[in-house]
Amino acid sequence: MFYKDERLALFIDGSNLYAAAKALGFDIDYKLLRQEFMRRGKLLRAFYYTALLENDEYSPIRPLVDWLNYNGFTMVTKPAKEYTDSMGRRKVKGNMDIELAVDAMELAPRVDHIVLFSGDGDFRPLVESLQRQGVRVSVVSTIRSQPPMISDDLRRQADNFIELDELKDVIGRPPREPMPEREQKLQAQG
User: What is the gyration radius of the CA atoms in the chain, in angstroms?
Assistant: First the structure.
C-alpha cells in the first residue's frame, strides 16, 4: 500500500503506541521505525506527540524525547496536568489529540499519505477529513492484544490497517528490564 514516490508523514500518538507495543511484549526502536518508512516513500516529517510531567526530578520519557528531537523527529509536547481523583489517587492527564489533528490538517495539502500510529477512535473524523482532501491514511495499531488497541471505527475508516505485531521484526527490540526503584532514585540524583 506504499508507493516509492509518494510524500509521507508519520503522526505518532506516543502514549498510544507505547501501550500497544507493551501489550505485544516489545519496545519500539525509533531509529528503525524512521528508516523503515523512509524506505517506503519520501518521508517529509515524523511527528511524535506526548505530554510531559514538568515537575518531576526524573521523567522516564525525557531521554526518549531528547533522542527523538536530535534524530529527525518533530517533537510536540505539552505539560501534563496532575490532579487527585475522587478516590484520592494521583492522576495525570495529557491528551495530545487536538495538537495531532491540527498538525495533520495543516500538512494534508503537502503530503500524499499519512501514517497514524494510534488506535484511538477519536481520530476517525480526522482520517475521514484527510481522505476527503485526497490523502491516503494508514493506521498502525494492533488487534492482537487483549483487549485490541484499535477502535473498530478507526480501522474501518483507514485506507490501510497495519498490524503493529507484524512490524515487530522490523521496528522492534526486546523490552528493557525495569530498573529497581532504588537504582532509579540513585540515577535521578546522580
Answer: 17
Angle at 21 between CA 20 and CA 27, to 5 degrees: 155
What percent of the chain has pLDDT above 70?
Answer: 91
Q: How far apart are CA 3 and CA 173, in angstroms?
A: 27
CA dist 153 and 68 (Å) reads 30
**How many structural domains comprise the chain?**
1
Confidence label for 178 from pLDDT (cuts 50, 70 and 90): low
Amino acid at position 110, single letter = R
Domain of residue 124 covers: 5-186
C-alpha cell at 80: 501534563
pLDDT over 50 at 144, yes or no:
yes
DSSP tally for the chain: helices H, then strands E: 8, 10
Domain harbouring 159, CATH code: 3.40.50.1010
DSSP code for 174: P
Residue 91 has pLDDT above 90, yes or no: no
By the 8 A CB rule, do 165 and 172 touch? no
